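Forum > Structural Biology > Help requests

Title: Can anyone predict the 3D structure of ATP synthase F(0) sector subunit c?

Hi all, first post here. I have the sequence for ATP synthase F(0) sector subunit c but no way to get a structure on my laptop. I'd be grateful if someone could post the structure tokens.
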Amino acid sequence: MNLWLVTIPVFLIAATGAILLVKRWRKSAFKFLLAINIAVMVGALALLVGALSSGPAAAAGGVEPAVAAAAAAAPPGAGGAALIAAAIAVAGSSIGAAFAVAYTGSAALAAMSERPEIFGRAMVVVGLAEGIAIYGLIIAIILIGKA
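Reply #1:
Sure, ran it for you. Structure tokens for ATP synthase F(0) sector subunit c below:
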């Protein structure tokens, strides 16, 4: 079973507990939740630093010399940095595409309300705005391939 599926009930229980805590003790609950958030943030930063500063994992016996040489030549944390860059590329392009589709979609609907025959042209413009997300996905695939 996937680890993320197991954590969903834990997050639901924690969110319910946080809501009940805030309803019962307002000021002290805010300080308590802030302390928990700071502790989680420090732990996440420690994991990030550990992931970026570690070297490549040692492979088991029977590894080809070319693969071992390529793994040894890569600077420590280069694979993790490429994955983070891929995530940033996808997230940034998706957010940009969301804004573009929101503006062009609302303008297309407004134009189609007056002239319904321009449906095809309006959807082409909305589709071009959605292409921004596809560009980010392509960049992410290239970065993951180089990681």
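Helices lie at 3-24, 26-53, 65-73, 78-114, 119-146. The chain has two domains: 1-51, 75-147.
Shout if anything looks off.
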